[in-house]
Write a structure and sequence with these properties.
alpha/beta, Rossmann fold, eight-stranded mixed beta sheet, 9 helices
């Protein structure tokens, strides 16, 4: 399928899973728009993507995804600059060792790793619907961590007992449940929503993480990839054009987590997320 006339927005496109997705898409001739906080890093990433793929059509937008005001500006800027959005790839993420509260009153790990995906998706949903068929893909993680995924509704943001790795995992579970709930809400629309495990992708994620994560990163180094096959596949393949509400492993296989989807948890997470959102959608 020709990807050249489509618009792809990739959060976290300057590094890790986002960049590996951008490379995969650029190889297919796509125009990618990447998002991160730092313009110089985006420019550097786009240079690398162009060098790797021969596709220099990539552009960038800058936003701090920990702040909903910045996400709103990002969505507005995107809508001013582009007429369509065919794929939104929610790939940004970060690990925080300590609890921090943003100026908007949200715990930062939760803000970046979950709320940003919820808010940006909802801000762009009208455009995705108008551009349909379109797709939303969201990174979650290794299925062995997801098989018993449950969100801690009593302390969604880990405000009472903060632990960086637990907060990261809880946000990952929330992204998984969010994806299934989103797919349910998008039934009848020409927009699909799927979650994916990227596999082992070259990353900066552990740069500020605890020592044991750094050690784990050394172990995984030989297996690291810098192109993400599954996110590229989910963004472009006709095979999955109408598939929605599924979890795809790095090898493109569906793991049937949707069968265990707890609809009540999906609705509860959605309404709690709306309460934490500073804008009505
Ligand atoms: N890498 C893997 O193998 C792997 C495997 C499974 C799951 N994951 C998940 O994938 C997600 C991303 O990991 P990664 O490996 O891609 O990490 P990474 O290499 O550190 O990249 C993170 C990206 O997110 C952006 N970002 C972080 N905070 C941001 C903010 N406040 N505002 C805007 N952009 C922000 C970063 O840009 P700036 O910092 O420059 O703003 C960067 O582009 C995480 O949730 C991780 O758990 C990764």
């Amino acid at each position: 399928m020709n990807q050249t006339d489509k618009v792809f927005l990739i959060t976290g496109g300057s590094s890790g899973v986002g960049k590996a997705t951008a490379i995969g898409l650029a190889q297919k001739g796509a125009k990618v728009v990447i998002v991160n906080r730092n313009a110089a890093q985006s420019q550097q990433a786009l240079k690398e993507i162009a060098h790797r793929t021969g596709n220099d059509q990539g552009t960038y937008l800058t936003a701090d995804l920990s702040l909903q005001s910045s996400i709103r500006n990002l969505a507005d800027e995107f809508k001013r600059k582009y007429d369509n959005l065919h794929v939104l790839a929610n790939c940004a993420g970060a690990i925080f060792n300590q609890k921090q509260i943003t100026s908007e009153g949200i715990e930062r790990s939760f803000a970046v790793n979950y709320m940003s995906h919820f808010v940006l998706t909802n801000q762009l949903l009208d455009m995705l619907k108008a551009s349909g068929p379109s797709r939303i893909i969201t990174v979650t993680g290794n299925p062995s961590f997801l098989k018993n995924a449950k969100v801690n509704f009593d302390d969604l943001q880990h405000l009472n007992q903060f632990n960086g790795m637990m907060a990261t995992a809880n946000a990952m579970y929330a992204r998984q449940i969010f994806t299934f709930e989103l797919a349910k809400r998008l039934k009848g629309e020409k927009v699909t929503a799927n979650a994916f495990n990227p596999g082992v992708i070259k990353s900066n994620l552990t740069a500020h993480s605890p020592w044991y994560m750094k050690l784990l990163a050394v172990f995984y180094k030989p297996f690291e990839k810098d192109v993400c096959g599954v996110s590229t596949y989910l963004s472009t393949s006709e095979e999955v054009q109408n598939v929605s509400g599924r979890f795809f492993n790095h090898n493109r296989n569906i793991i049937p987590f949707h069968e265990k989807f707890d609809r009540k948890a999906g609705e509860k997470l959605w309404s709690m997320s709306e309460e934490l959102s500073l804008t009505d959608f």
